[in-house]
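Extended Data, panel c. Modelled sequence:
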Amino acid sequence: MKQEALVAEILALPVADRVRLVEAVWDSISAVPEALPLTDWQRQELDRRLAELESDPDAGASLEEVFARIRRGK
């Protein structure tokens, strides 16, 4: 099957099925993280963010707090 036909078939799926497909594709990619190495910029940015978190671990918000803010619309 040509790529264009495959894409058209995927886009014809209901949204819920496309979401499941995306999740399955992402799971297959994340299973081999070494297949997508970080760029120098990405590594530096992650190191910077980690250092910031370690210097003040209470500065951020928990996942629960973030979700609560999202649900409140803020």
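The CA atoms of residues 16 and 74 lie 27 Å apart. This feature is highlighted in the accompanying rendering.
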